[in-house]
Amino acid sequence: MMTPKPSHPTAGLGVIVGRFQTPFLSEAHVDLIRTVAARHAKILIVLGVGPALVTRRNPLPFEARKQMLLEAFPEATVLPLKDGPSDAAWSRRLDELISDTFPTDDAMLYGGRDGFVASYSGRHSATELESPARASGTALREEAARRARNSQDFRAGVVFAAFHQYPKCFPTVDVAIFSEDGTRLLLARKEAESDFRFIGGFADPDSPCYEADARREVQEETGVEITEPEYVGSLLVDDWRYRGEVDKIKSLLFRARLVSGRPQAQDDIAEVRWFDVAKLTDADFIPTHRPLWALLRGRGSHGGTENTEANPRV
Question: pTM for the full model?
Fold first, then answer.
């Protein structure tokens, strides 16, 4: 235990502020709550609630964490507190929550190691309690994610998580790579396909911008260097992997010129080939990339201007 248990609880309210985003209460969690319970006649556990739904850092909703805590500590009061962009505003809302729930009690705030204390600027005293039984919430979540469990509760939990997310839009980038004089267009073909496509792929969450994603995809799939990608437009992609799903793919189309290098099929590309722009037709493209070709030529219904030129220049 963190401290010896006194024979009588201290008067007043003990407030534990944390996230408890783990599949079970760790030994450190239990140690923290028991220590506070030994010091105070009343316990309030305030759970942080993030703005996003079912993320790796915050996978569990408030109600699931509340039930987990009350099963082990039924005498506690468990309430939610939404996260915010300002520590000062969050501290004020925490103070308001405490005074609204226990208006006549003096409160002492407690957090675990690397908890909220350094960010708190409210009117109550706050301290960290560190248990000798250290446990990383991140490590516990990663361990829980390593394998599927053969149980009805596990399957029901996965279904619950799938339904309690905001519909997602996955951004991709596609790049129309032209020769220096703008008369040829470099396209790629994948192993299982007979028609061609623009060079591209999914955007990287860690990249600084979509233009960087475009340059990366070109380098990975062809090995060439291009000019700064110029944004053409975007559209919803009828990708077979997401038909019937609420989540969808939207592609941002860029165009650029070849600067250096000889195109070589790399990554998941089976073949790269130059095409005469004046002779290209919809039939040369895979179905999902035909709208991108129309967008590039300026004849799609996506906010582009009608382009009657045979050769779109870069």
Answer: 0.79
* Residues 197 and 77 occupy one common structural domain: no
Q: Using CA atoms, how far apart are residues 40 and 287, in angstroms rounded to an integer? A: 67
In tens, the pLDDT along 100-153 reads 999 988 999 999 877 899 999 999 999 998 777 677 888 999 999 999 999 999
CA distances from 58 to 61, 165, 205 (A): 8, 12, 18
Range of the domain at 23: 10-163
Return d(Cα 56, Cα 49) in angstroms, integer: 13
Residues 6 or more apart in contact with residue 15 via CB below 8 angstroms: 43, 44, 45, 46, 98, 107, 108, 109, 110, 124
- Reported as a single tens digit per residue, the pLDDT across 70-115 is 999 999 999 999 999 999 999 999 999 999 999 988 999 999 877 8
| In the block, residue with structure tokens 């299982």 | 192
How many whole angstroms separate alpha carbon 284 and alpha carbon 276? 11
Domain-embedded: residue 1 = no
Q: Which of 280, 266, 179 is nearest to 226 (CA)?
A: 179
Q: Residue count of the chain, please give it.
A: 314
Count CB-CB contacts under 10 A for residue 235: 17
Q: Domain containing 99 — which CATH number?
A: 3.40.50.620
CATH of the domain at 196: 3.90.79.10
The tokens for 85 are: 């962009």
Total number of domains in the chain: 2
